[in-house]
Amino acid sequence: MTISQRTKGLCVVALLVLLSGWCRSEPLTDGYEHENVLSIRLAGDIVIGGLFPVHEDGSAEGSHCGQVKPDKGIQRMEAML
Question: Which residues form the signal peptide (predicted)?
Answer without folding.
Answer: 1-25
